[in-house]
Design goal:
binds the ligand Nc1nc2c(c(=O)[nH]1)N[C@H]1C(S)=C(S)[C@@H](COP(=O)(O)O)O[C@H]1N2; alpha+beta; binds molybdenum atom; 3 domains; Immunoglobulin-like; five-stranded antiparallel β-sheet; about 525 residues
């Protein structure tokens, strides 16, 4: 009879290795097909159950780094759980003594190992499908996930088989190489185990070190790819944000990768003639182009979740006129390939500037901005501009979308806002004077006036405005400032929108309907 404890330890190590194989396969799969990995599903579920104010705080403070970090932790967690399942395997499928002869015993363990591995992986696959996925809120067999129950259960079966078979194989290998000189099975195991243990530890440590190194390198690359201008001066933003500098906000850990040829846009719901469009059919319709600034509703005053681009696409009103509308339509709901949803009032949907766009500043819409097509709703915060859109449905009730279900306002009108880009907060400014500047933005209301105060808000100076590229963009403002004295100055900025209303000065956090207040910075005149 084989001793138990070494087997359990072997089970853990083999489980870790098999877990690495499965995780690598999942990552490969998600890169190639855009499929959700198990950690992706779990992180989304965790995010879903996190109170919105915590989510908001985490996302706005840690921003882009939060998700990769969390995701990496979950991947490591998955590998450790795979190790624990390896122990379970070793306990469930111990080697059975086949007879008196040692060699036969090894032989049998080796022979049954891959079969046991297969059986074991089917057992944990059932566990994942029937318990794990429903508990994380995506339904039995992952029926609520983008791929649907059939695809999800098949790919997960493949993942689990890769784990179980690797595990069984490794276990079989590990105990089936007796040293001919050593009669005692236990000794043989302990020797194989020791060399295996060293190898396994080295492998795991190697993988961990490589991961860590990659992470450090990517952080380093991020740091050195930041704008290289002097940290005390600041610079006006380019009026049209280059696509690779355009801010990105997504609810996903892994965004959908959509194949343009397979993508369709369905127009259904309360319409007379439901229909579907392929990408080519959409692109063949008459198109319109417009400059539109997008700002995330979680952007703090003076924050950088705001960018400007020129967009080309088809007017949503044209798409809806083609289907016709049944009486009673109140809103138009949008669904995306990542199961994101939102809706806009019918009136806003029929406005000529609301479009389904497929081009961004002359380029095909980049993946992260909603390839192959997204909604664009000028005047409303970014969350209404549904990326990777697949379905448009007029409805006769007050549809609540993904973020609205999590406590955010459904209205989404942008607040009038203004930003100081030059000089920078905590920066310096020459006593001899120089240009100050930044942007003002008020959605589809336009900007009538921007004023700068250099004395903490006691007096205000009207800035010069560059002509807006369209009624839906930010404007660049400049003001030549000649300071009257050395030392610290508090600069504040405020804008007046096209309806004559002054920017709200009362500070308020972003949740639930967007931040208000005035940006204030401190500069040293020298
Ligand atoms: N399908 C989908 N669309 C989405 C989101 C998302 O997570 N999924 N995020 C929204 C939010 S909150 C914002 S601010 C904008 C950001 O668009 P961008 O990443 O192109 O700047 O996309 C919106 N559309
Ligand atoms: Mo957003």
């Amino acid at each position: 009879m084989m001793p138990k404890r070494p087997l359990l330890r072997l089970g853990f190590l083999a489980g870790i290795l098999a877990g690495i194989v499965m995780t690598a396969l999942m990552i490969l799969f998600s890169l190639v097909f855009g499929a959700a990995t198990l950690p992706d599903v779990i992180s989304s579920a965790v995010l879903q159950f996190t109170p919105t104010n915590i989510q908001d705080a985490l996302l706005s403070t840690l921003g882009a780094n939060l998700k990769p970090t969390f995701f990496t932790l979950l991947l490591v967690g998955q590998i450790i759980i795979a190790g624990l399942f390896g122990i379970l395997y070793a306990a469930l499928f111990p080697a059975r003594p086949a007879g008196s002869r040692l060699a036969a015993e090894y032989e049998e363990y080796r022979q049954v190992s891959w079969r046991s591995g297969t059986l074991f992986s089917i057992l944990i696959w059932l566990f994942t499908m029937l318990i794990m996925l429903p508990v994380t809120g995506v339904g039995f067999f992952g029926s609520a996930l983008a791929g649907g129950a059939g695809l999800i259960s098949l790919t997960y079966l493949a993942f689990h088989l890769s784990y179980g078979i690797t595990l069984g194989y490794l276990m079989g290998r590990l105990v089936s190489t007796p040293e001919p000189q050593r009669p005692a099975l236990a000794t043989a195991i302990s020797i194989t185990r020791r060399s295996f243990l060293t190898q396994a530890v080295m492998l795991v440590a190697g993988v961990a070190a490589a991961g860590l190194l990659a992470r450090v390198l990517s952080l380093f690359a991020e740091a050195i790819s930041l704008p290289q201008e002097s940290p005390t001066v600041g610079a006006l933003p380019p009026e049209i944000t280059p696509n690779n500098k355009f801010y990105i906000v997504t609810k996903n850990f892994v965004d959908p990768t959509i194949n343009k040829a397979a993508w369709t846009l369905s127009i259904g719901g309360l319409v007379d003639r439901p229909y579907q469009l392929t990408y080519d059919e959409l692109a063949a319709m008459s198109s319109a182009s417009e400059y539109v600034t997008l700002e995330c509703i979680s952007n703090p005053v003076g924050g950088d979740l705001i960018s400007n681009a020129q967009w080309r696409g088809v007017r949503l009103s044209d798409l809806l006129l083609r289907s016709g509308l049944k009486p009673g339509v109140q809103k138009v709901s949008l669904t995306a390939a990542d199961d994101y949803t939102d809706s806009i009032p019918l009136e806003r949907a029929m406005a000529p500037q609301t479009m389904v766009v497929y081009e961004m500043s002359g380029q095909p819409l980049p993946m992260e901005h909603g390839y192959p097509a997204r909604l664009l709703v000028p005047g409303l915060h970014g969350y209404k501009s549904v990326k990777w859109v697949t379905r448009i449905e007029p409805v006769n009730y007050n549809f609540q979308g993904y973020w609205e279900q999590r406590g955010w306002s459904d209205v989404g009108t942008v607040h009038t806002t203004s930003i100081i880009d030059v000089p920078m907060d905590d920066g310096t400014f020459p006593l001899s004077g120089g240009q100050t500047g930044g942007v003002g933005y008020a959605g589809d209301r336009g900007i009538a006036k921007v004023e700068l105060s250099t004395d903490g808000g006691s007096t205000w100076h009207e800035a010069k405005l560059r002509k807006a590229l369209s009624p839906y963009t930010w404007v660049i403002w400049t003001y030549p400032w000649i300071p009257d004295k050395l030392g610290l100055h508090e600069l504040k900025v405020r804008a007046t929108d096209g309806t004559g209303r002054l920017q709200i000065a009362t500070p308020k956090a972003a949740l639930p309907d967007g931040a208000t207040g005035l940006q204030s910075i401190i500069v040293t005149v020298q």
